[in-house]
Structure formats: structure tokens, C-alpha cells
């Protein structure tokens, strides 16, 4: 259990670090950024993954402590049994079971959010964390004696129900919904600071000619950064999802809805959907662009 909980703590710590530093977690599935950048990914302004890291860390500490106690009991053998040590080990098992029950309850609610609130977004990190939580729960339950499981089952069920209910109350789509309820943003295209290069302009033209699309929102910082990657003057095949401005409840443009856009920016290249900012090199590779981003192209920009 200690190893599994440690893996969960490492995963959650990585996600919390990316969230706090403004980075994007590497993920092979398209729904990761949708889930990790949604309002459900924060609680009271703190990344939910940070809470997860602490919870998994506590379970890992309990598990390693219980394992140490078990080792001591085995070393003593039946001839030198220690009632106090056995009691301590029994309490550790029960405590681990309750802790893993809480983790399983949180994961259950988050899977519900993933399936119904976020349209079935495919989030590898979310599914991995849920798998770890449920596995810990199963191991925790299996480690109880018959008497312990009978005594622990009723309060564990109550803990599960209360935890799920509390998650439903405190975890909402937008933590700052009250502050955005009356907010309206008028559409305003960003003013780019970086200049385009011969390479970025050629790549943008190639993307347009091959039918690629970048879907985004004018208020999306990652979309602006993606445009800055190309620079001013590069004609990116961009589709604005809120051409008439934004306010709470505004639906995305029909083109974005038809493309099943779940996060910004989203690239669609040759039928493949990519969420998040992409490097020029990756866009070139995926679209089959053969231009060279070398010294010669840089020199050409000087003349």
C-alpha cells in the first residue's frame, strides 16, 4: 500500500506543480487539459491535486508505519507475542481502511464529474488516480480481519456517503462563480508582441492549405501564447469560439461545437485533435511541413 500511495502522491504533486506554475501536464489523451484546467480542478483557490498529494502522502506514511509494525510482530514470533504491538497493528489496518475509503469516495465523485460534467473527457491522470484509490481501498479492506471488517463497515459506508455529499457541495464548476456572474467581456483580438519569421509564416500557410484549424478564445492566455509562438504576420488558421464576446452561459461558436472543442487552444490536424499549446516543430511534424527552421531562414528575415 505504501508504494501505491507514494505513486499517487508523486502524480498529484506533479499535477499541482504544473497547475501552480502555469505549465501543462504531458498527456497522450485529449481530455487531460479539459479536466485539469476546469473549475473542478481547484478547491478554495488551491489545486485539487495539492490536496490529493497530501492525502496520498498521509496514507503512504500510515502504510509504511503499519508495515514496520507487522515486521516487528513477525520477528517476535508466536513465542514472544506483544499484545500492545498487535493492538497497534490492528488500529493501523483499520485507520488505513478508513483513509482509503475517503480516497475512494473522492475518486468516485471525480469520476462522476469527468463522465457527466465534463462530457466524458479522457483524462489519464484522473483515471490513474482513481485506479490507485480503489486499489488501496480493496487492499485496505482485504487486510482486515473478519471482526474488524464487520465493525468497520457501517462507519466506512457513512464516511463514503458523507465524503461524496461534501464533494458535491464544495466542488463546483467555477470556484469564483460569484465574481463572474455579471461579468461580460467584449471581443478584442490580442496585440502580438513577437514578430513572425519566414519559417512560422510558411508553416502557418501550410497549415491553412492543408485544412488544419486552431480553435481558441480571445480571453485565453494559452491561445495568445500560441499565437505569439508564430508571431505577428503569420496567418494562422484560427477559429474564434467567442466572436461576439463572452459572459457566463455564452455557448461556443457553431464551428467549435461541431469540432467538439473541450479546451483552449485545440488544434485539429488531419483529423487528429490536440489540446494545449504546441511547438512549431510538432505542428510541422504532424502536418507534414518540410520547411527548415534554420539559420538561413533566420537570415532571410533580416532582409
UniProtKB/TrEMBL annotation:
Domain of life per record: Eukaryota
GO cellular component, one term: membrane
Compartments, as annotated in UniProt: Membrane
Transmembrane segment boundaries: 48-67, 94-116, 123-146, 152-171
Keywords: Disulfide bond, Membrane, Oxidoreductase, Quinone, Redox-active center, Transmembrane, Transmembrane helix
Stretches assigned to the Vitamin K epoxide reductase domain: 1-144
Transmembrane helix recorded as keyword: yes
Membrane topology: Multi-pass membrane protein
Keyword Oxidoreductase: yes
Recorded GO MF terms: oxidoreductase activity; quinone binding
InterPro entries attached to this UniProt entry: Thioredoxin-like_sf, VKOR, VKOR/LTO1, VKOR_sf
Alphabetized Pfam families for the sequence: VKOR (PF07884)
Sequence similarity: Belongs to the VKOR family.
Stored PANTHER family: VITAMIN K EPOXIDE REDUCTASE DOMAIN-CONTAINING PROTEIN, VKC DOMAIN-CONTAINING PROTEIN
Protein's name according to its UniProt entry: Vitamin K epoxide reductase family-domain-containing protein
Organism: Ostreococcus tauri
Amino acid at each position: 500500500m505504501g508504494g501505491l500511495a507514494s505513486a499517487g502522491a508523486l502524480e498529484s504533486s506533479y499535477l499541482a506543480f504544473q497547475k501552480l506554475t502555469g505549465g501543462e501536464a504531458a498527456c497522450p489523451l485529449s481530455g487531460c487539459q479539459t479536466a485539469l484546467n476546469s473549475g473542478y480542478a481547484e478547491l478554495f483557490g488551491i489545486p485539487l491535486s495539492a490536496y490529493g498529494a497530501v492525502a496520498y502522502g498521509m496514507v503512504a506514511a500510515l502504510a509504511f508505519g503499519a508495515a514496520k509494525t507487522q515486521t516487528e510482530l513477525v520477528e517476535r514470533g508466536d513465542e514472544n507475542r506483544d499484545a500492545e504491538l498487535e493492538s497497534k497493528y490492528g488500529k493501523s489496518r483499520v485507520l488505513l481502511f478508513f483513509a482509503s475509503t475517503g480516497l475512494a469516495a473522492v475518486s468516485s465523485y471525480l469520476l462522476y464529474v469527468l463522465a457527466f460534467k465534463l462530457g466524458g473527457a479522457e483524462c489519464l491522470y484522473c483515471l490513474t488516480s482513481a485506479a490507485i484509490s480503489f486499489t488501496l481501498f480493496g487492499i485496505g479492506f482485504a487486510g482486515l480481519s473478519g471482526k474488524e471488517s464487520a465493525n468497520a463497515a457501517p462507519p466506512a459506508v457513512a464516511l463514503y456517503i458523507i465524503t461524496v455529499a461534501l464533494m458535491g457541495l464544495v466542488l463546483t464548476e467555477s470556484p469564483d462563480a460569484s465574481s463572474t456572474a455579471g461579468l461580460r467581456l467584449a471581443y478584442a483580438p490580442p496585440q502580438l508582441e513577437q514578430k513572425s519569421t519566414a519559417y512560422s509564416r510558411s508553416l502557418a500557410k501550410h497549415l491553412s492549405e492543408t485544412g488544419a484549424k486552431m480553435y481558441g478564445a480571445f480571453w485565453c492566455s494559452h491561445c495568445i501564447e500560441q499565437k505569439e509562438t508564430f508571431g505577428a504576420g503569420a496567418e494562422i488558421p484560427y477559429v474564434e469560439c467567442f466572436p461576439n464576446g463572452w459572459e457566463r452561459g455564452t455557448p461556443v461558436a457553431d464551428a467549435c461545437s461541431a469540432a467538439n472543442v473541450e479546451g483552449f487552444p485545440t488544434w485539429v490536424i488531419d483529423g487528429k485533435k490536440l489540446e494545449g499549446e504546441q511547438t512549431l516543430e510538432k505542428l510541422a511534424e504532424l502536418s507534414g511541413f518540410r520547411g527548415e527552421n534554420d539559420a538561413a531562414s533566420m537570415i532571410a528575415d533580416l532582409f
